[in-house]
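Write out structure tokens for Membrane transport protein MMPL domain-containing protein.
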Amino acid sequence: TAVLRLGGATISSAASTVGSCVFLLFCTLNIFGKLGYVVTAVTLISLLFALVVLPAVLILCGPGPRPWYKREVARLWNVARTKVMDALVPPHQRSRRTVALLD
């Protein structure tokens, strides 16, 4: 969804950069002509990587089904639940219903 939401802005930005470099391509000074080619090529390669390669790599190497912060919250909740349960109901007086209510 990020590519769908930001793809238009990224393409528009690249188009304006390439559009401004078109004037450099027709310069009589060699260095400005070469600069126009380099900036155009770098912009198009960056656009390709930003919209195609990077999302694919992030899908392959991104967080799993349960990111670390969700695992950590679940672990902290279990620790807090155990401490509260120990304070309220001693372990030898717990019933299955008491444990199920806190799960």
